[in-house]
Amino acid sequence: MADTPEQDxxxxxxxxxxxxxxxxxxxxxxxxxxxxxxxxxxxxxxxNTTSPENFVSSDEGLLSLNLLQKNxxxxxxxxxxxxSATSNAAAKVNLIYPCTDVHIKKYSAQQLHMxxxxxxxxxxxxxxxxxxKTEGGRLNWVYNILDHKEESEKIVYEDEDKEMGFILLPxxxxxxxTMTSLYLSVIVHRTDIRSIxxxxxxxxxxxxxxxxxxxxxxxxxxxxxxxLLKIYVHYQPSYYHFHVHVVHISHDMGASxxxxxxxxLDEIIEVLKLMGKVPxxxxxxxxxxEMTYVLGEEHDLWKKIFEPLGKGEEPTI
Length: 317
Ligand code: G7M
Known about the structure:
29% strand, Phosphorylase Kinase, domain 1, alpha+beta, globular, 317 residues, hydrolase, six-stranded antiparallel beta sheet, HIT family, subunit A, HIT-like_sf, EC 3.6.1.59, single chain, 3 domains, binds N7-methyl-guanosine-5'-monophosphate
């Protein structure tokens, strides 16, 4: 009989720390499970504020306290907090098992660089990279969601139309509880859009309808108005099947929601509208723009394309 996910996680044999962020309270570990490489990523959760009156309770809040120092009106302590894995967890723990080299690179500490991807670089090299990244089962988790094989009980909203439709559901980064860190993903049913680069003005109705349906669904399910949501797309994304990030405006996502990575859906729609007005051109689209973004040194796009180009060498993709 196959091991349960809990048994797999317990069997993790630590190898090395890939990355740690003391500000965002995250830790990425590399190890093996049953001889296969595995990554654990852990993130300390936000404070539970459903019963703030219990915060100082030695039964239900701060269980133990250790006074570190006192100075005039200032006091600082270390403490332990009452926690439960089901209703008030200390950490959100993700396991990727078995993981690939691409995962190991993605979760490793690394120097970042700004790169400028011209339409020419995109056409000649990046399209090849994207094609490679859509093969080899990397999108299995996406197809599992679209086929209702996994996570179907978590679906917030689905439009089943093959061209206009999508599934809205919690992103794996969300703890499913903390409203101010709400994080949902929109995964579209159509399979012809790998990234923002595939958009032309002909996609405006699709994107505008998606945006409007997402706002209605989030408002109905979570009573959150649209002006409390950041709705954006990554370029480059990790997965080349079109998806959109829907995140609470108060949630600090770090690099994943900042310039050099995230592009607002509203902005994409506006740029497409303007492209639609370019006289005489029916084929202009995001493939014709110079795109500037951040890449880590471990990323294959850096190693195989931008690093060689920077040295005047031919890309190795
Ligand atoms: O960078 P990119 O735009 O490709 O982001 C992909 C998003 O998909 C990230 O926010 C991930 O947290 C999320 N994600 C990745 N996986 C493997 C899963 C999954 O299996 N289920 C869900 N719900 N989200 C995922």
